[in-house]
Amino acid sequence: MDAQETEIEKLPDSLIHEPLNWLFAEHYRHRQLCRLIDSLATAAAYNEEGMNEVIAFLEHDMPLHVLDEEEDLFPLLRRRAVPDDDLEHVLGVLSGEHQSDGDRVSTLLAALVRARSERKSPALNAGLRTLLTEFAVHERKHIALENAVILPIARLRLQACDLQALSARLAARRGRLLDGEKE
């Protein structure tokens, strides 16, 4: 397995000033997660680095991303969308998936942590292999919907003040200051 398959790239700090590009790049990181999950689900050899990467992402990055969308992006879109955008149904579907993903991620994390403590490849456990595969399939569909519908409408509807506020919230959630802010 090469480094590209075992690493989920970090986002450059400067990208936080372009919040919609940040979210798009974050979705790319989710696709990298899925690729790594696919690798773990099929590799007979135990991959501690890959396991640690997936567990860390699911524990830290995934919840932050859901908050970015649920607490910031989706409410902004609800305020700015026009009726012709027909966005409420899609936002409802995505929010419902975010809620059900919480349980799915908890179950997956518990199984991965157990496999890591036993130093066993997830591919050797049929139930865990299925959990991983189903999670990756679901996550790819979820990200595709967000990239195809949500982000293009956000680019059309959100105003400069919305984007500045979104940047500030993304930064604050990650304990960062934007240029010009004071502690």
Characterize the structure shown:
The chain is an all-alpha fold. It has 6 helices and no strands. The protein has helices at 3-6, 19-42, 48-80, 88-118, 126-157, 160-173. It is globular. The N and C termini lie far apart (43 Å). The model has no long low-confidence stretch (mean pLDDT 92).
How do you describe this structure in short?
The chain has 183 residues and is mostly helical. It is 75% helix and 0% strand. It has helices spanning 3-6, 19-42, 48-80, 88-118, 126-157, 160-173.
Share of helix among residues? over 70%
Report the biggest beta sheet as strand number plus sense, adding barrel if it closes. Answer: none
Number of helices: 6
* Strand content range: under 5%
Q: Which structural class should the secondary elements be placed in?
A: mainly alpha
Oligomer state of the chains in this structure: single chain
Mean of residue pLDDT values: 92
Give the N-terminus to C-terminus distance in angstroms. 43 Å
What is the string of SSEs from the N terminus onward? HHHHHH
- Rg for CA atoms: 18 Å
- Globally, the shape reads globular
Number-wise, the strands total: 0
Low-pLDDT parts are none
